[in-house]
Structure formats: C-alpha cells, structure tokens
Amino acid sequence: MEDPSWTRNCQSLTGSLQSLDKKISALRRSTNKLRSLKDINREREKVKKTTAEINTVDVPVIEEQLRLVDRFVHLRPVLRTEGVKLMSEAQSVLQSYRDVCDQFYKQCISVEEASRGKMSGRLDGSYEDDAVANQEGGKPLPVTQAPTQKVTFEKDLYDDIMAERVRETNEIAENVKDINEIFQHINEMVGDQGAKLEIVDANVTAAENATRSGNQQLRRAQSYQEKTSRNKVLFMFLIVMIVLVFGSLIL
C-alpha cells in the first residue's frame, strides 16, 4: 500500500514541473520574437517578470519537493525507481529553464549587434560630416553611447543577486529572531519547572518528616501496647494468686 504522503508529494512535484514547463515555453516564444531592439525592450520586461516569478516561487518549491522525495527514497528503498525518475525529470526541466534563459540572453546580444552594425554603416558618413562641421566651428564632437543589452543584463543580474542576498539576510534575521524567542520560551519553561521542582522537593521533605514522625508514633504506640499487655498479664497473675491463697485458707 502506497504512503499517502508520498503520493501527494509526487503529484505536487509533477504539477510544479508542468507549471514551470509552461513558463519555459513562454520564454521560448519571447526568444523567437526577437528581431529588433524594439522587440528586445518589449520582450525583456516580460522575461524579467517571468524569471522573477520562477526564481522566487517555482524553483524553491521544486527544490523542497525534491528534498522530500530524496528523504522518502532513503527511508523506503522500494520507492527508489519512481523517485529517481521524478528527480531526473525535475533536473531536466530545471536545466531547460537555465538553457532557455541563456538562449534569450544570447539572442538579445546577437540582435543588438546586428542592429548596431547596420546603423553604424548608415551613419558613418553623417558622423564624418558632423565632425568636420564641428571642428570648423570649434565645437567638440559629442560622444554618446547607449548601454548595450549585455551591460543591461549584467546590471539586472547584479541587482537580482543583491536582492536575493538581502532576502536571504532578512530570512536569517527572522530565523535568528525565532530561535531567540524559542530559547526565551525554553528558559521560561525551565524556570517554571525549577519552581515546580522546588515545590515537589519541599513536599517530599515534608512527607519524609511526616513519615519519620509517624514511625516514631507507631513505635511509641507499640511500646505502650506491649507495656499494657505486660501489666494485664501481671494483674491476671496476681488475681490467680489471690484466689489460690484464699482458696487454701478456706480449705
């Protein structure tokens, strides 16, 4: 009989992989639409939004589900075949996601270089005329250079890395805060248990004293009982002797 937890985790992992695969298809469509700088600017925003959602939601969920699968496989070797199949499928989908991101990045650079090459050929003549005119007028030639897609992507990557580090730092701070609260709660529990132990210890001491006093009272009672029994025997002996004496006198 299959473990319900294993079945739920497998179904959840399969659903997460299907969701990620749909988003990968959307990234491929964006890559195929890149034909000009205008296309890059338009599709880049879509891809940035999609990858941000994947990196913050889909990938962490899949990694957590893979850890659960690996734990199940170690606990129950009979699930190894199905578990290895699921893990291989997940690794394949994650690798496809990395590949499609690289393809989009490379396609952006390729389209940008091609567009700039065409524009530079058309504008060389006008740049030379402007340079001559500016030199004759005594004005320096202004040099302007728009940032390339590579620089833009590297900047976005740096921003994403820094944002991820800030998020991880905040998570660590929250975890430390939670741990601190747990330790404070444990200290309070230990203090309460210590007070209860002191009360128990006092009760045990009182019980020992009461037991000791009770034993003393029992010994005294036993001593009194023995003395009373001895006195009764002596009294009965005296009565018998008196009866015998009077009986002998009468006779």
From the spread of the alpha carbons, the general shape counts as rod-shaped
CATH class of the largest domain: Mainly Alpha
- Reported CATH architecture of the largest domain: Up-down Bundle
Question: What string, H for helix and E for strand, traces the elements in order?
Answer: HHHH
Treating each run of at least 4 consecutive H or I residues as one helix, how many helices?
A: 4
Largest sheet geometry? none
Measured distance between first and last alpha carbons: 106 Å
Strand content: under 5%
Structural class: mainly alpha
Mean pLDDT: 76
Q: Indicate the percent of residues in helices.
A: over 70%
Extended strand count: 0
Write the topology of this structure.
Layout: H1 4-32, H2 37-75, H3 80-136, H4 149-250
What does this structure look like?
The chain contains four helices and no strands. With 251 residues, the protein is mostly helical. It has two domains: 1-125 and 150-192, Methane Monooxygenase Hydroxylase, Chain G, domain 1 (Up-down Bundle); 219-250.
Short descriptors:
2 domains; mainly alpha; Syntaxin_N; membrane; 251 residues; SNARE binding; rod-shaped; SNARE; Methane Monooxygenase Hydroxylase, Chain G, domain 1; transmembrane
What's this model, at a glance?
The chain is built from 4 helices and no strands. It starts with a helix and ends with a helix.
